Amino acid sequence: MSDPIWSLWWAWGAAALILGILEMLVPGFVFLGFAIGALAVSLLLLNTGLTLGLPALLLIFAVLSLVAWLVLRRIFALPKGQVKRFHDDING
């Protein structure tokens, strides 16, 4: 019997690629944390050969995506107390 699609490493890799492409189309780091989480699950399945169920994989994906989002937020956030201001209007 073949493995379900969610337990295949390349399915998670494809999801990471799609989420990465969506991140390029939608501004604001919306999908980047999810793409990193899906890539991490893909690498976990590829390197360990584990066969986990969907709930376990979704839990791992959610935790890794949250960690990636928190790290990205810390890296790309403005320094504390600083506000982003625009002095020039590109339309004017």
Describe the protein.
This protein has 92 residues and is mainly α. It has one domain (5-76). Helix content is 62%, strand content 0%. It has 3 helices and no strands. It has helices at 9-25, 32-48, 54-76. Helix 1 runs antiparallel to helix 2 (32-48) and helix 2 packs across helix 3. It starts with 8 loop residues before the first helix and ends in a 16-residue tail after the last helix.
Average pLDDT confidence is: 86
Rg to the nearest angstrom?
17 Å
Quaternary form: single chain
Structural class assignment: mainly alpha
- How many domains? The number is 1
Q: Output the number of helix runs.
A: 3
Protein name: NfeD-like C-terminal domain-containing protein
Keywords: Membrane, Transmembrane, Transmembrane helix
Transmembrane segments: 6-22, 29-46, 52-72
Write the layout of secondary structure elements.
Layout: H1 9-25, H2 32-48, H3 54-76
Protein name: NfeD-like C-terminal domain-containing protein
Organism: Pukyongiella litopenaei
Transmembrane segments: 6-22, 29-46, 52-72
Brief descriptors of the model:
92 residues; mainly alpha; membrane; transmembrane helix; transmembrane; NfeD-like C-terminal domain-containing protein
Summarize the structure.
Keywords: Membrane, Transmembrane, Transmembrane helix. The protein is an all-alpha fold and 92 residues long. The protein has helices spanning 9-25, 32-48, 54-76.
